[in-house]
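#structure-requests
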Amino acid sequence: MSQAEHQAIFPVDLSQQVALVTGASRGIGREVAVQLARCGARVACVARNLQLLEQLVEQIQSEGGQAHCWSVDVADSQQVNQVVEEVVARWQRLDILVNNAGITRDTLLPRMQDEQWDEVMATNLRGTFLFTRAATRPMMQRRYGRIINISSVSGLRGNKGQSNYSASKAGVIGFTRSVAMELAGRKITVNAVAPGFVETDMTAALGEMFKDEVKKRVPARRLGQVADVAACVLFLASPAAGYITGQTIAVDGGMSVGL
């Protein structure tokens, strides 16, 4: 890989900072972790799939970055608290938290099982709460922090067959606004990013016909790329975004315009 390919898509100096990314093993989370490392941050990569995480750490280190990985159930309070403590013990600080871990269990409401609702809420909303609560402690001690929660356009407008997912992502937005108000006086910003349809493993499984139909609904006439979302996250994680908090930024090619 050439030196140009190792450069961050949104170049910002995050050297000496420590970032933690949940759901880092694939898709948006993986790209965010790589880009944060390319900006100089030391990156704690968190997900369940340890094998994929180790591959991610190997890639970051091969590019000259610093990273370590933890296999964690983001809905387990004890595991979450422990990994945050280990990250701070390893690098003596935590500056950036990206709550990206998320799952879907799509089905129409009459067919939705209790477990399908509970699993989505546990990962998408409870996981965001647990990591944010744990991360605010070291951030408050240093009086600095950047928390970026990955929501979804589905949390803004809803989506048929995704009542559980949409509710969880709408909850992330409400959570973001409330916590932003609590932490603003400590110089900790809390914002949400709401991706639209983005090319990932999940969308690839939907087939070309479905993706063609989606493109017709997107004013930009294309699906988003993980790099589009990562660029927004990098900006919100940067010192330049210090006066932006409690906001939800849609990265969706214009789908949410007019909502």
